[in-house]
Fold this protein.
Amino acid sequence: MTAHAVATRGLTKRYGRDTALDRVDLQVPDGAVFVLIGANGAGKSTTFRLLMNLERPDEGAAEILGLDTASRGPEARAQVGYVPERLDHSYGWMTCARLLQHVSTYYAAWDFGYADHLSKTFALRLDRRVGTLSKGESRRLQLVLALAHRPPVLLLDEPTDGLDLAMRTRALSLLAEHLADTPATVLMSTHQIHEVDGLADHMGVLRDGRLVAQMSRDEIQRTVRRYRAEVPELWQAPPDLQAGGVRSSTRREMQWTLIGDERAVVERLTQAGALVREVSAMTLEAAALALLTQDVTR
Amino acid sequence: MMQASLHPTPQARRVLAEQVRAVALALRWPFIVASALLGAATVLLTIGLLGADAPIDFRPELSMLPGMVGLLLPIAVWHGEARFGASLLWTLPVDRRWHALAKVGAGWVWLMALVALFVIWLLALTLLSGGTVLAEEMLRVLPAALAPVGLPPAAGSLDPAALQTVRWAPTPLLWLVPFTGATGAYVLASAVPLGVRQPVRWIAGTLLVLFFIFTAGDLTKAAWVARALPGIEPLYFGRYGFDALLTARTESLKTIATLSTGETVSVWRGVPDLGHWAIATLLWTSAGLIALWAAASRHRERR
């Protein structure tokens, strides 16, 4: 598993009868910006908590930079800048400046100048008490805490949640600057895929606790395509093409989002009696939506 | 290949030092309030001394205050810390159980400083009032048969001739009592916020349940209640009870009795025994450390 900066093997987590994660084999290449998407409750935050060793998996294992997150938890966490999904209400009595100083003790690589720069960019008032911060300000503080020690791995669980539009843009451009400055692997979950379109180079899709797809952006662009084809009247799609097909109501026309080599897919459709009229590449967001909603066939 | 540029985990010494600093900040307000109270107490005592012309004798073991502070301090140490869930404390690159214990240890450092201040304050007050330090005393001691622990002797039943007079010289070892008492109480009490999500609910719930059980037992005249109460008493008043930890039994052994002559005097049920204090300290502190370890283990690394 060490070929990947973040990797899980058969990671399974159950809460009573509910399976939050089901045999997830996540592989985040070194240096990648991997966006993990999924509906609410799909298992994204559970994945992050397991990677931080905040919970024990029922089965499977996870590694960060080759360090087993269970047996070498502290070492693994030393490599990570983590922004949790939920805001942490600890240390409400501390000022932001004191909290930064407090956390800096734990990271030998803490960059004080960079922490100042980040705080200024995020317009954080360091003399304010943590407990008095708004949701957006708390999120900005979390981002500073995660980035200021220039970790080789960033685990960002919906990092822009709670930020206003201007601050989201600033946060994402700052993240891009950070990555240009400090090579790091990013595993990020978000519902705002269009926002990370310029950053993401890999995508994983969690559906009901199962990792149904993980691929590079190139692979997505190369293999996830929308096909529009004309079909004869009363035409029945072959079983392997039934899922994900959308029949046009006005014409004898169908549309599919299919994963696979374009030439092979066109050949399959042609052999099935359809006349392919158009093949179009998809944006990351459209591909994500298709993968999320099962509107896709391999 | 990847492990060549790994970031190191922090040194234990650095973490502990930072916890001591952070806990000091957390204790700032309780410390200010305590200082104000101590100042007010000094003023009141000084006024009292000027009027009464009675010196204060320095008896560190007599005060339960350090023990009480030890019981309450964990609330301040863990105040504002999300102890359960994905809180910042547990996401830091330190073994979690060790981290929890480091925080408890940092609180203990300040507790000892507070107790030392208190002892010095008492000592200063004693010397300024012209009192004596660890002065020899003549204790009036009840005969064993008349000294059931926890209850004062029946009023007017005590023959003055039955009282024994014992010379007692407190040893300097008793200076340790405020420190050991506060330590034992602190480790025991620290296990509560660290081990349970809702400590206030647990404590209030336990007290309520006990209250209802004993009230119901009392109302229904259940015999087991009468048997259970004396069984519980030794936990506090007994030879190795909690009072032995906090005050070397100088509180529970001392009582007021009305003699058959009508005179009300201060009497002792026995002479404080350093051996009992040492064993009680060992037992209660060990129990506290075990409870603390179990509580901290709730936050251990998920291996």
